[in-house]
Design brief:
The structure is a single chain. With 458 residues, this protein is an alpha/beta fold. It folds into 2 domains: 177 residues, Aspartate Aminotransferase, domain 1 (Alpha-Beta Complex), CATH 3.90.1150.10; 251 residues, 3-Layer(aba) Sandwich (Aspartate Aminotransferase, domain 2). Helices cover 40% and strands 14% of the residues. It has 16 helices and 16 strands. The strands form 6 sheets. Strands 2-8-7-6-5 form a 5-stranded mixed β-sheet, sandwiched between helices. Strands 9-14-11 form a 3-stranded antiparallel β-sheet. It has a two-stranded parallel ribbon with strand order 1-10. Strand 5, helix 7 and strand 6 form a beta-alpha-beta unit. The protein binds pyridoxal-5'-phosphate. The site of pyridoxal-5'-phosphate (PLP) has 15 residues, from helix 4 and helix 5.
Amino acid sequence: MHTIIEPFKIKSVEPIKFTTVQERETILKRAWYNPFLFSAEDVLIDLLTDSGTSAMSAKQWAGVMDGDESYAGSRSFFRFERVVRKLTGFKHIIPTHQGRAAEKILFSIVGGKGKSIPNNSHFDTTRANVEYSGAEAMDFPTPEGKKPEVIADFKGNMDLNALKAFIETTGPEKIPLCMLTITNNSGGGQPVSMANIRDTKKLLKKYNIPLFLDACRFAENAFFIKKREKGFAKKSILEIVQEMFSYADGCTMSAKKDALVNMGGFLAMNNDRLATLSRNILIVTEGFPTYGGLAGRDLEAIAQGLEEVLDEHYLTYRIRSVEYLGEKLTAAGVPIVRPPGGHAIYLDAKNFAKHIPPQRYPGQSIVCELYRVGGIRGVEIGSVMFGRKDPKTKEFIAPPMELVRLAIPRRVYTQSHIDYVVEVVKDVYAHRDRLKDYEIIEEAPVLRHFTAKFKPLS
Ligand SMILES: *Cc1c(COP(=O)(O)O)cnc(C)c1O
């Protein structure tokens, strides 16, 4: 077979800035060893996130110019609504400025004290919005999803036995809806199988609990189903997407992922009453129902992006480019979460930097070294993000995994950029004994990873 190539040519380019190791050492120090505090200009290859970092196509930019900015009844809204309805089949489609705005509206209606929301794994903003409403966010990932070294096709699945037991003990009346995150972002971008979506719905139906998809990466998930699940090889991505949504009663969506735009989102559902309540809040917090928190041009770009993301050449390239990075790193002996997910490679920092204990932040140490050596920006997902202190004993409690995420923006970097990333990671791994312990010298009470200040220990 020939090389899988980028299914586009480049029409417009953005230069990236080269710095020396010495300059980067100064930048690291000035930013208190926290890459969230860098100026993005100082980053050579930015793998901080795949959210809102996609390159738009010429047709999307043309849509930006063509957007209808009418306050009510904009033509761009109707195009957006048509495309989302074709994919999801949902009756009510409500634009929001990003995914978390859809979550905020949904959970301020169905959440609240005494309620529980189950999910395969809540994304952090989803959890925050559930908890902010007073409800409890519960995760039921499949057991193999928690083991980085176990190779399985659908590590993003919901653990249906655990979900059933939870519904039985909690009582279905306390569960206003159940979420399923596709792909499972917090679980490493691992896909959820069609069988699992179908069986989740089947189980919920018995208790009359609606199913909502957290659908940010629906197209990447559909591609994995096509490649890995029996009976789907000959179906089109559109048919698979339509089947996935057919089991759900609604969804929240961040268009910053698989809609290939830099901003946007939506909330969709079949239930009329829920839709009316949602639109009432939308008007107060986001905007009139035919624009939500978005400009007409944004709706136009989302509609176009949602059509483009279904292209099988695009998805083949997308999933292959992530897998390519994973394959090269694995061949070099670098420990990563396997198999590679849809949007990122996760370095297994516990095995990468065995000499650094969790409370000395092995992931943060790798993140800093990747920047120092090669100007690459990744993000720690481990004890910095999720570590906490026991309220009584003040003892440090580490999360189950110490990871460094290298998220791949869509349509942004070429194969030689990724080859360069491989070289830098291999270099850092070869000299892993150089990786230093870190301590936090200043932190915020919540979501401390964004602003914390660090100090390397010699
Ligand atoms: C990004 C993301 C969200 C939140 O979307 P925003 O547009 O960033 O507000 C919710 N769920 C998942 C799984 C995500 O990846």
